[in-house]
Each structure stands twice: as structure tokens, then as C-alpha cells.
Amino acid sequence: QVQLAESGGGSVQAGGSLRLSCVASGHTYRPYCMAWFRQAPGKEREGVASTDSYDRTLYADSVKGRFTISLDNAKYTLNLQMNNLKPEDTAMYYCATERPCVGPRLNASQYSYWGQGTQVTVSS
């Protein structure tokens, strides 16, 4: 079992920045994949960014150049630096992980463990 705990959400104006973090505990063995997903009201959950324990990354087109995913393997912490935020980035953001796993991926069905989510609200 793996437990995930997100933090760092909040409210910001368009053009602002936020940094999300997700701490993993439990069976944190390698190799693994981790990702950030988001879900806005009335919409399907979508993959935002993913990485794996080999530091490969994958981004959704909508966030490329604005979001940066990073993994601190020593602290079992996944981060998402979000810059130049837009109102359409407003959503509940979830951290997810799968292990064993090799290769970043943005398909929610390929992740077994999920956090509770942290809300991000961007006002215009």
C-alpha cells in the first residue's frame, strides 16, 4: 500500500504561480511512476504531468512551458511548479502513483494509488 498526501493548493490571480507537493509513504519501492491529474466540475479527470523514478517526464499540451514536474527521490516527494496560471487551470489536483512502473504516463486508469486532492483556483 502507498499513501499520498498533497499540499500547496490555493487561490491565485491569472498569471500567478503555485507549487503543489505530494508526499508518498508506505511501499515506496522503485521503479515507479508518479503524476498529477486534475478535474474541474463537470469535466473528466485529465493528466497534467508525469514522471518516473528515472526522471523522465511527460506533459499535457495545455501545460507545456508553464508547469514543471519534479521528483525528490530521497524525500519521496513529487512537486508541480505551476507558472503563468490561467482560469482554465482551475480544478482539483490529484497526485497518483503506480509501482512497479517504468515510463511516465497520463492515463488515469494506469494508476492504482491516489491522493485526496488539493484545490487550485485561478481568477481572471
Describe the structure in your own words.
It is a single chain. With 124 residues, the chain is an all-beta fold. The protein is 0% helix and 52% strand. It is built from no helices and 11 strands. It has strands at 2-7, 10-13, 18-26, 33-39, 46-52, 57-59, 67-72, 77-82, 91-98, 113-114, 118-123. Strand 4 and strand 5 (46-52) form a beta hairpin. It is globular and about 40 Å long.
* Rg estimate, integer Å: 13 Å
Span of the ends, CA to CA? 40 Å
The major beta sheet can be summarized as: 7 strands, mixed
Total helical elements: 0
Q: Structural class, judged by helices and strands?
A: mainly beta
Strand-helix topology:
Blueprint: E1 2-7, E2 10-13, E3 18-26, E4 33-39, E5 46-52, E6 57-59, E7 67-72, E8 77-82, E9 91-98, E10 113-114, E11 118-123
Parallel strand pairs: 2-11
Antiparallel strand pairs: 1-3, 3-8, 4-5, 4-9, 5-6, 7-8, 9-10, 9-11
Summarize this structure as a short list of keywords or feature phrases:
124 residues, mainly beta, seven-stranded mixed sheet, four-stranded antiparallel sheet, 11 strands, 0% helix
Gist of the model:
This protein has 124 residues and is mainly β. 0% of the residues lie in helices and 52% in strands.
